[in-house]
Specification:
This protein has a five-stranded antiparallel sheet, with helices on one face. By secondary structure, the protein is an alpha+beta fold. The chain contains three helices and five strands, in the order αβββαββα. It has a single domain, classed as 2-Layer Sandwich (HIT family, subunit A).
Length: 133
């Protein structure tokens, strides 16, 4: 049983912020910024590739609710919504989860990406490959 399943089962304590039949939101025990929240499905799904679409709708609705609470109660204007899928992407717990990271002027958190400048032909090939069924 994974650590998040143990939290859902009540075997590990957590700082719950939202709960319904399908979704749980709680403070991340390793706060990146003050108010760092995790939103998870109660049922175990490894990643977005296995996630049920109906559960995804419920997860995102709870995520929006939590973001609005963070904005109102922590007085933030900025927030990162982060989701990692697989080791290469930085997923540390193999249970689907969304990170809500409130942002503050002096929080010293950075996200940097090396961007590619592709030609229209290269973009079209990628589009066709993705849409190929």
């Amino acid at each position: 049983m994974c650590v998040f399943c143990k939290i859902v089962a009540g075997e590990i304590p957590s700082y719950k912020l939202y709960e319904d039949d399908d979704v749980l939101a709680f403070l991340d025990i390793a706060q990146v910024t003050t108010g760092h929240v995790l939103v998870i499905p109660k049922k175990h799904y490894k990643d977005i590739f296995t996630l049920d679409k109906d559960i995804a709708q419920k997860l995102f609705a709870a995520t929006v609710e939590m973001a609005q609470k963070l904005q109102k109660n922590l007085k933030i204007n900025d927030l990162n919504l982060v989701n990692n899928n697989g080791k290469k992407a930085g997923q540390e717990v193999d249970h689907y989860h969304l990170h809500l990271l409130p942002r503050y002027l002096d929080d010293d958190v950075e996200f940097k990406f090396k961007r590619q400048n592709l030609s229209q032909d290269e973009m079209k090939k990628i589009q066709e490959k993705i849409l190929d069924s």
